Amino acid sequence: MRQLFHGLALAGTALFSATVPCAAQSLWTDADSTPPRLLDRSVIEGTLIGGQAESLRLVRFDDDQLIPLDDAPSVIPPMPETAPRSMTDCESSGGLLGCASLGCDSLLGGHWLDGCGSMWSGCRTGCQSWTDNVELFSMAESWKNRADDVGQNNFGFRNGFNVGIPVLADYGVAVQYGGAWGVYDLQGRGVGNTGPAEHHLFQTLGLFHRSNVCCGDRISWGLAWDYMNANNFGRNGNAHLDLHQLRAQFGYAISHQDELGFQGAWGANTDFIVGGGNVWTVAVVDQYNLYWKHVWQSGATTNAFVGIPGGRNSLGEMILGFNGQVPLNDRVSMVGNLHYMPGHASGIQAGQNHYAQDLWDVGVGFQFSLGGKARSHNISGNNWMPLMPVAGYGTMSFQPPANTTL
After folding, report:
1. CATH value at residue 215
2. pLDDT tens digit sequence for 370-398
3. Quick one: 148 and 236 in the same domain?
4. Coil, helix or strand for 199?
5. Gap between the Cα atoms of 358 and 153, Å rounded
6. What does the pLDDT look like over 328-359, one tens digit per residue?
7. Collapsing DSSP states into helix, strand and coil, what is residue 158?
8. Would you say residue 373 lies in a domain?
9. Same domain, 139 and 254
10. What's the burial of 88, exposed, middle or buried (CB within 10 Å: 0-12/13-18/19+)?
11. Taking 60 as the threshold, does the pLDDT of residue 318 lie above it?
């Protein structure tokens, strides 16, 4: 019976190695070799280890340990969707420690490669549809802005999309485009144009490059143009705004789980609103932020940042923020963001409260990945997925001048 099992197992392994060459080198390991290291704690069962029929055994990998199963099980478990790998050329030539079990180009099945093969853990040859890189989001959002009244708290809903499309695949460069539509103050306002809700449209168009830590590429960068169109804006709900800004991001992976970098935003134009019998200029607040991005064992991603505001109408002392994505499965994630800019005393009119100059934005909701790329396996994320978020009231902040009476 054991000889029959060994023969079937050896034949099955040979067939698998013939059909999937990149997996064969990770499955055929000497019996006394150290097993490949996994990045997570998931159990991969049914892996065949051993190059000779006499030493061939059915084992499982559990939390980085090689555990033999029964010598002669009645049924050989199916091969796992994602197989562990041995040391790859990529890691030995510059990839970060911890990448060996994922490698550069041999993640099997699912939505990673679909058999195409690519050092970018994604398809560079066009065999995947661009729709695999589409993410949709729906959020509840609350924000406050001095340009929209001293104490006005605007609550509503924001829905949108973001997509990445490779344009210079050999260099890992892609275009991203996204848009978001927000509706706020659903029950109207107490003064002025009291009936209709506020409607805001954001658009983002950019160029980006993701790092590839498993192949020694630690650098990521992005450059984007943002546009905002606001209707029924202002204290009386009768203002219309059109603003533009330039946004940039540069990151450096210090490990396969962590990235440090810079995020900046600069206004490209101004607009105006009428308040208190006066016409006030509204301008984008420039931002200079340092961030720390971390990918957790579960595939969740968090990003915390701190910085300083600048520009023509800056009323803030500093910038504090956080955003995160927690996958519930391969397609659905919970997402949230916080952006806070406390006002400074020099922008306070005599007799007003300090909160009048505060600017903040808070949102929570769900994000949907059409290509099943919700989880991140390392700090580089999934190739061709958009690097930068669609603009919103945090990433695109704006204010009127100090001491305005709206």
Report:
1. 2.40.160.40
2. 999 999 989 999 989 999 999 999 999 88
3. yes
4. strand
5. 11
6. 999 999 999 999 998 775 545 544 556 667 88
7. strand
8. yes
9. yes
10. buried
11. yes
Residues 63 and 140 placed together within one structural domain of the fold: no
**Quick one: which H or E segment has residue 301?**
strand 301-310
Look up residue 405 and give its two tokens.
């009476």
Calpha distance 206→130 (Å, rounded): 16
Q: Is 14 helix (H, G, I), strand (E, B) or coil?
A: helix
Distance of CA 304 to the CA centre of its chain: 13
User: Would you say residue 122 lies in a domain?
Assistant: no
For the record, the structure tokens of 93 come out as 């030539």
Does residue 124 lie in a domain region? no
Identify whether the C-beta of residue 304 lies closer than 8 Å to the C-beta of residue 321.
yes
- List beta partners, residue 301: 295, 325
Residue 121 lies in a domain: no
- Do both 140 and 79 map to the same domain? no
Average pLDDT, the chain: 75
Do residues 150 and 77 share a domain?
A: no
Q: Which residues span the domain enclosing 324?
A: 130-399
Q: Which of 12-26, 90-104, 165-179, 258-272 has the lowest mean pLDDT?
A: 12-26
Buried b vs exposed e over 314-353: b needs ≥16 C-beta within 10 Å? bbbeebbbbbbbbbeeebebebebbbbbbbbeebbeeeee
Residue 186: name the closest of 199, 197, 201 by CA: 197
> In this structure, are 254 and 362 located in the same domain?
yes
Burial class for 372, CB neighbours closer than 10 Å (0-12, 13-18, 19+): middle
